[in-house]
Amino acid sequence: MQKLALLSLVLLSTLFVPRASQAQVVTDGAAVALDSLMQMVAKTRYELNQMTKVEINAPRMGLRRHIVRGYNLAANPGNLPINDVKRLYVWKQRTRYLRNGQIRETFVAQINNQKVLQERRLNGSPIWLKLARGLDMTNKNPANNKYVGGTYIRDGYFIWNGVYYALPKAKL
After folding, report:
1. pTM of structure
2. Distance of alpha carbon 69 from alpha carbon 52, whole angstroms
3. Do 142 and 155 contact (CB within 8 A), yes or no?
4. Which of 2, 20, 52, 102 has its CA 20 to 30 Å from the CA of residue 128?
5. Rounded to whole angstroms, what are the CA distances from 165 to 57, 74, 111, 122?
């Protein structure tokens, strides 16, 4: 009877104890760096979308090509109507629907006449991207703004903050 009680206690304790296998810690340096690069790209796009207004252009009823631009309005000291104020374009995304069913996207963002983010995607997955920005996008002083940058190529080779990485190839 004691053995049965002890066995049931051990069994129940293993059911309710959190397991280490529920969340895996990534120890591969290349995977961690790639994840950091992709998170910074997503954060950059989010910040750019939050600080701009959007203009959509779809010629010929938008059958094959869509162009979306984000802009800020220039200073308006003369209190001109909003339609007459110059638009300062910050980013541009072009989406092309090809006849073979593929979707090609390009995204380019510029701040202070410097390209912050360039990205090419094919069917939603990145082919090539280049990120070069400061941690604080609103800070215009490069002396006290830490640089973050990287480049990614589809074959698994990328640079993150000046360090070269290669993802391991999958074995078939």
Report:
1. 0.74
2. 9
3. no
4. 52
5. 38, 41, 28, 22
Cβ atoms 90, 116 nearer than 8 A: no
Query: Over 60: is that where the pLDDT of 116 sits?
Result: yes
Per DSSP, the residues of 60-124 read GGGSSEEEEEEEEEPP-TT---GGGSPEEEEEEEEEEE-TTS-EEEEEEEEETTEEEEEEEEETT
Domain coordinates of the chain in residue numbers? Answer: 26-166
Q: Which two tokens stand for residue 152?
A: 């990614």
Judge contact between 107 and 117, C-beta under 8 A: yes
Average pLDDT, the chain: 79
Q: What element of type H or E holds 41?
A: helix 29-50
Residue the block writes with tokens 């252009």: 57
